[in-house]
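Bumping with the actual sequence this time:
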Amino acid sequence: MYRKALLGMALLGLSGVVAANPYEYKLANGLKVVVKEDPRAPVVVSQIWYRAGSMDEVNGTTGVAHVLEHMMFKGTRKVPAGQFSKIIAEAGGRENAFTSHDYTAYFQQLQVDKLPLAFKLEADRMANLALTEREFSKEIKVVMEERRMRTDDNPQSLVGEQLNALAFEAHPYHHPIVGWMNDLENMRVEDARTWYRTWYAPNNATLVVVGDVKHDAVFRLAQQYFGPLKPHALPSRKPQKEPLQRGIKKVTVKAPAKQPYVAMAYRTPVLRNVTEDWEPYALEILAGVLDGYSAARLNQSLVRESRLANDVGAGYDDISRGPGLFIIDGTPSEGKSVAELEQGIRDQIVKLQRDGVSEEELQRVKAQVVAAQVYQRDSMFYQGMLIGNLESTGLSWRDEKTLLAKLNDVTAAQVKEVAIKYLQNDGLTVATLDPQPLDGKQQPQPQAGEFHVH
């Protein structure tokens, strides 16, 4: 079968391959392979992305995507529990995994000649994971402790969790990636097995390789190791749209903390058509106007000048499978209240909506926003991240250049227009932290994402 498949690829001139860098090929079982040749160092990054994240979970099993990510390191029939990481380390590589609302991904960074090893191990656990009661009962305790450390004992994370839970009523972004504690306490190994059997298949995955490789050689390796795996039917994914928000929502979170904190989330669109949509690009530049560099408006006005805040920031992600949020958050200075900081933020928004941005400021912000994206592309790992993120959220790696070009095309009028349209109360959710006595407990530092630690 393998020789026949290779012959077919040769006869067709690798049909499906784009004559540019990156290169793409799809195996007969549905696995998409994207290769970015980057010869700057004799290393390679291999990432396998499954289009299944916490948004695909159902009530009662929240957190199962992240739990399965942990279990993927707990052995197959060929590789005993704990050996995956050891084998990669002994080969001089490093590996990890992460879960998001939209996808779950696993990666290795190795010397180029060790790429077959990464493929062999990943293909094995894509099809042959040994989900035992013994390993599950140990690992679910690890996940619950992770939730305690990252969320329950972290006041800002608690605020973020409640912010999402209130901002999203119908959409599963309502649920935390790590899962609700009660669901974790009642999760069983069969829940993980069901998730694995449902979503872990070559026709629900994208293999991304970046490094000092030749694409045709990588395609042959992918065919060798992943080609024999069988696809299976995937569940239909129903649209899950948020109902119209009809006014401001507010929640107060009481938790042990040193300082109060406020987070404001505005409902926004995300990219669905990279060439025709323009609002997401304008929203990204708007985030840069407010918090794209050290002299951006929020920091300059609220931290340096009025000293209302110790820190304040804005963020927006235009690429996701679900609905978007534009978030502004901050910690008030000592002696200042959350209400004062919130009003200070609102004043800056009103000023922007009224006066807009000058052409000079716009060009300065664009330079910062675009430069930040270009710098990320210097990293092999983040080149792979961009490709995997685009492919797993319904876009394409081919959109990369368009994304940068469209950012450069944003006008001052468009920035003002999206500020007026989306930074308004009817689409706003506000979560505040009401700090309670610490009782001598030390607060852990915030951690980003749901990365697996093993």
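The tokens above came from a reply further down the thread. The domain at 2-226 is CATH 3.30.830.10 (Cytochrome Bc1 Complex; Chain A, domain 1).
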